[in-house]
Amino acid sequence: MSLACGIGERMVEELYLNINPLQTGGRTPADTRKAIFSWVDGYAVCDACKGSLRTTDKPPIRQFIEDVSAFLGMDNALLTNGAREAKEAVIHSLVSRDDWMVTDGNAHYSTLVAAERNGVPVIRTETSGHPTYEVTPAMFEEAIEEGTRAHGRPPALAVVTHVDGNYGNVVDAKAIASVCHDHGVPVLLNAAYSAGRMPVSGHELGVDFIACSAHKSWAIGGGNAGLLAVNEEYRDRIIRFSKEYPVKPIEILGCSTRGSEVVALISSFPYVTERVKHWDREVAHARSVVSRLMDAGGFSLLGTSPKEHDIIALETPAYDEIASHHKKRGYFLAKELKSRGIVGIKPGRTKHFKFSTFGFTDEQVDYIVESFLEIKDKYM
Amino acid sequence: MSERSVQNTYNAIFALIDIQEVWRRTRPFHSLSERDREELISLLEKVRTSLDTIEEEML
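ok -> structure tokens follow
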């Protein structure tokens, strides 16, 4: 028996250690897969609709929104189709075409595209460049002052990438928010790679909005879902309702993620609230991997050190040297890893690549490092 | 056939999803500990019981 239309079973998460950083935080626990199976049919979450997704009690979406707002240290939240839609909702609500906004030099492309969709000019901060690519509060200060001189007024919004997806750098969001607020600029934290993996509190960081990606970091699997958490001050400017349809929030066009993914999000929530308590273990795993690879030689870290996040980016001259005389060229690495039960590195890459150890046991992390080292030793 | 059969279909699938979780937890070699084996045996029993119930309902 097989899936229809030649799609084929995936089985990646059962057969391999998948270290693709895009996928490790969205991997589902069993209870979530059961919930998805049960609620997968179209508009199933609307069986007991009261006119709006956010007021639905069966399944308990209304309660979830309250609980998740508190979990994120914020006052309210909207369910969105992803982090990018959450960011776009804030930009659309607060920033006009005559304004401008500031973001960091490591911002995800969707931050820039969301601004572009709204016709909003963006000034990006510098980064420290190779090899650390760090973004500091001083860089935000500089970009705000430079943009204010150019535009004649401060930015209408700052979008701060809490953790970037290329290097896994964690910015000092609290200090950056303080700089932005000193200039009267509201702060949207892009927490696509942080909230759901590590503890994030909007009140503690002093941010005004948090954009979350549920499929990236909240263990909900493949369905698209996200969250936009807002503080009290901006609640009514973001969660505005239609005049014609007063129960429908305008920024999510009434109801956003209205499929099994919202049930997945509710069912994964206890798992997520528990796993963020063990974030120190995830950081320890990443540091251990980096330390062992650096000690072995032939590897160098991209991004800041010590590691504060599970995304690890490396330059790998050792593998690149092997690729230069291997008959499979750069593809040898992915092949060697796969033969050891490890996938998730882009095939062909040997100069530099990134991976994630999120969610693995001590033994599995040890095995991943040993495999990297064994492959190097096999050819050098 | 009845709601009981449908419920047991779900029970069997949920137990299979729990078995899938054992494969995920023990990847990539699936070297099972004694505890994993006990869990697996218990889950297989759940699947069999549910399938038996569906079969009884059908006959």
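The longest helix of chain B spans residues 34-58.
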